[in-house]
Amino acid sequence: MRIWRSSTTNSLAVSRRLKAMFDRACAMVIDRALVYGVWLGLGMLVTFIWPGTAKMSLIPMPNPTLFNADQWPWPPVAFLLFIYGLPSLRNVVIITIYVVLTLARYQATPGMRRLGLGLSRPNGERVTWVRIVVWHLVSFLSGLCLGLGYLWALFDSKGRTWHDIAAGVVVAREPCAPLFKLKGESH
Predict the structure, then answer these.
(1) According to DSSP H, which parts of 57-88 are helical?
(2) Which pLDDT band, with edges at 50, 70 and 90, does 115 fall under?
(3) For residue 27, is it within any domain?
(4) Domains identified in the chain, total number
């Protein structure tokens, strides 16, 4: 009778890769929540301070008679500005600026730092601006290809995604202090 056993090293390697992918996904969610939260807050603030801005043609409304800005209070209008603005090129530019500036300064975004991740060259050197821009732009392609660029980390021996490979960088655990701490945490 033959009993199939998985090798411990293979299962450990797969579980480490899955954990690394999960950490990277969580970091991306944290970063997007920060950017969109600030964007929503600014939209609500602008609409509150200047209520007339809701009447401007900032919202691509399919039928103006259904969406009369005079009858709506300011939070729903700001919410619509936020929702309709998500897929726009403007937000891609804002996220790109956020990611490039934080990576250039700290070698990690706030979400990455929160989870103890950092971006570096395989030899440990700092990542240059050009590599950061390449890394971020190719990350869009990794997601546009049904996420295959991100899933590639499961098959790569070093756990790298397409954008890591294209930019010649690695995302690894960094011994850096987080930018912010949760209540009751000590580091």
Answers:
(1) 74-85
(2) very high
(3) yes
(4) 1
Residue-number span of the structural domain to which 25 is assigned: 12-173
Q: What is the pTM of this model?
A: 0.69
Chain centre to alpha carbon of residue 42 = 19
Phi and psi dihedrals of 173, rounded to 5? -65, 130
Residue 181 lies in a domain: no
Q: Is residue 16 part of a domain?
A: yes
Structural domain contains residue 7 = no
Which helix (H) or strand (E) segment holds residue 172: the answer is: strand 170-173
Contact call for residues 165 and 131 (beta carbons, < 8 A): no
User: Rounded to whole angstroms, how far apart are CA atoms 86 and 154?
Assistant: 29
44-72 confidence digits (pLDDT tens): 776 666 655 555 444 444 444 444 555 54
Cα 138 from Cα 115, distance rounded (Å): 22
